[in-house]
What we know:
Layout: H1 3-77
Amino acid sequence: MTIDEQFDGMRQQMAQMEHRLTEQMRDMQTELLKAFLPFQEQTRLRESTLESRQSAGEARMATLEARLGEIEKRLLLNPPA
């Protein structure tokens, strides 16, 4: 066997190893994405819940501010004796 034939054989083996490694990396990537999908859905649901609670809190705060403003107007117009 000549040196060129040996190098060709090594190149071929390296190309096959590279192909197998690439396939394994793709499989790992797919598994990671599958593993994180439920976590992502849970996080999205939690974020949605927090946003709705924040909106409700802001609405309550606006109502309280309006009521406090009305109380202050009444006290300024009719101060206590």
